[in-house]
Amino acid sequence: GGSFLASAEAETREHMMLLGAHAVAVKNRIDNLRAEQNRMGLGLRADIAAGVQRMEYLLDQTEDAIKRGDAEAAKKNLSNAERETGKLESYLGRWAAGQAAWESYRPRHTTRPSSVPMTTLPLDSAGEAENAEPASHSWSLVPLRASKT
Question: Looking at the whole model, is its pTM more than 0.70?
Answer without folding.
Answer: no
